Amino acid sequence: MSAEKPVESDSLMSPPSGSRPMFSRGAGNGAKVGAGFLVGALLVGGGAFAANTISSSNSINACVNNTSRVITIAPTSGKCPTGTRALSWSIAGPQGAAGPAGPAGANGAPGSAGPVGPTGATGASGAQGLAGVTGSAGSSSNSNSSVSVTSIANTLLPSVVSIAITTRTGSANGSGSIFKSSATSTFILTNNHVISGATKVTVELDDGTELEGQIVGFDVAYDLAVVMVNQGNLPVANFGDSSKVVIGESVVAIGSPLGLSGTVTSGIISSLDRPVTTGGTGSETYINALQTDAAVNPGNSGGPLVNAQSLIIGVNSAIASLGSAASSTGSIGLGFAIPINQAKRISNEIIATAKIVGTKVTLAGVSTRPLLGVSFDPSYAGSGAKIFALTAGGGAEAAGIPANSVIRAIDGKITKDNIEAIVRIRSYDPGATIKVTVDLPNSGGSRTFTVTLGSAPSNSA
C-alpha cells in the first residue's frame, strides 16, 4: 500500500481489477469495414409488368404464396388457391383492401384511408398505415412520439465532424462537435483518446470539406480535448444541461463509427451517475457517466449524445465490452457519455488558457479538476472508500475528516468503493462545497462533514 503524491490526491495508483465490467474507449483503430448486405424481397405497394403501352386500364391479377412469397398468375376464375392471397398489378402498384387512416405525422393531420398492399403499404393518398409506410400524400410520422430523429439529425449533423488522426504507428478516427466559431477559426469538442498521440489531425465537415486540425489542449482526467481549425462561421451545436437529464428520456447519438461519418442512432438514457473508468495506469479517466442503449461503436467517441430538443447533453466516450479481444468490442447496448456540463467547463478552461498566435496554437490550454485532498487505500476490501492519508491543507483536512475514515456517502449518494468516491468528487467543479458522510476510525460512529473542494491541474503526473 502506498499513498500517492499530494498533487495526485483523490485517485488510485492501481484500480482494483475484476470488480467491474470492462469498458472500451470508443475511438476506432483505423480498421477497414467489410459490409455484407442481406437482400430480401418484400411486396410493399409497388409492381411492374411489360407492355407496349401503359394506360389506366392496365391490370394483371396474380396470387402470392403466404409462405414462399412466390407469385403466380391468377386463375381465370379470379379466385386464388388456399394458402395464397390475391394481388392486382396496375400502373399504381399492387392494390389491396382499404386500410385504416394512419396517425398524424410530424407535418400534418393523417391523410384519408388509402388502398393497402398485402404487407400493409398505404395507397397513393393515405397516411401511414398501421403496418406499412407513409403514402405519398399523407404526412410522415415517427413511432417514438417523444423524439423526432429526423428533426434532430437535420439540426445537429451540420455541427458534427469526423476526426481522423495519424500517429507514429498508424491511424485512428473519432468524432467531434463544433463548440465555438468566430470569423476566422472554429473550436471542436472531442475526447482526449481520439487525438492522443496524433502527429496529424484532419477534420472532415458535414459537407465533406477536409481541414487541418490543431490540438488546443486536452484533459486526461476527464478524457476531453479541443481541436481548432482555421475556418470560421461554421454552424455551432446547441448545448443542454446534463443535470436535468432523466432516466428513460429519448436520445440520439451522432458520429463516425468505424469512419462512417454522419451515422445516427437512437435510444434512451438507461442510467445516470454510472461510475466508469477507462485508460491505463497513470492515465486513468473517471467518468460520472450517462448510460445509453443508443448504439455507440468505435469511432463514435467525441461525438454528441443529443436529447429530444436537439441539445447536446453528453460526449460519447466509452462502451462496455464482453471480452478483452479487440474483435469483441462493439455496441451491446451499453454506451457511456461524459455529461456535457463537465465537458463545457473543461473545454472553456482549455480555450481560455491556450495561447493562439494568428492561426497557430503556440501553447496548449490547461484545465482543472476538484480535490477532496485525500489518498485512498487501494487494498481496502470493505464497503465504502477508506482514506489512507490526508493532503496537508486540503479540503478534507480543513473540514476535520481524520485519516482511516471510511467514506459512506457524498451529498447523500451512497459510495460503495474508491472508484465511486473518485467519480463522485470529479463530478463537481473545483471550489464546490459538498457533504461527506464517513465512518470514523476506531468505531467512532458516523459523521457528516462539510468540505470545500480544492483544485489541481487535470494533467498532473
Structure report:
- It is a single chain.
- The protein has 461 residues and is mainly beta.
- Among the domains are: 6-24 and 244-340, Trypsin-like serine proteases (Thrombin, subunit H, Beta Barrel), CATH 2.40.10.10; 150-236 and 347-363, Beta Barrel (Thrombin, subunit H); 369-457, Pdz3 Domain.
- The chain is 9% helix and 34% strand.
- The chain contains 5 helices and 26 strands.
- The chain has helices spanning 149-156, 192-195, 340-353, 395-399, 418-426, and strands at residues 22-25, 59-65, 71-73, 84-90, 160-166, 171-181, 186-190, 200-204, 210-219, 224-229, 250-255, 263-278, 285-292, 304-307, 312-321, 335-339, 355-357, 360-363, 368-371, 374-376, 385-390, 406-410, 413-414, 433-439, 446-452, 454-457.
- It has a 6-stranded antiparallel beta barrel with strand order 11-12-13-16-15-14.
- Strand 6 (171-181) and strand 7 (186-190) form a beta hairpin.
- The radius of gyration is 28 Å and the shape is globular.
- 42% of the residues are buried.
- Mean pLDDT is 79; it is low at 1-8, 13-19, 27-57, 91-98 and 105-146.
